[in-house]
Amino acid sequence: MIKFYQLPNCSTCRKAVKYLETQGVSFEPIHIVEHTPTVSEFQKIIKDTNVDVDLLFNKQGTKFKELNLKDTLADKSIEEKLALLASDGMLVKRPLAVNGGKITLGFKEEDYEATWL
Question: Model-level pTM?
């Protein structure tokens, strides 16, 4: 089943939920701030999906900007990046949908169609 990390009041997350429900796709909704993936969960996601760790960051988010990560992220080790992601769900690109080797970040209908249908 798809693990669907979201922020319930996020409009993009709501669009993705509506799309999955309309298509009859089962998923497990997880509040990304209340249940942020741990470092080991992020490591498993990266291992299983081959996603670049930098793509997991919400680069448009307030928290990303507050921490000045635009200028410093490239200099951080993968361990530092994973620790940052696990420290605050607001740093994670959402919705984050993952199931085994499949992943989508954000919501684009064509990506969801190609990945989850």
Answer: 0.94
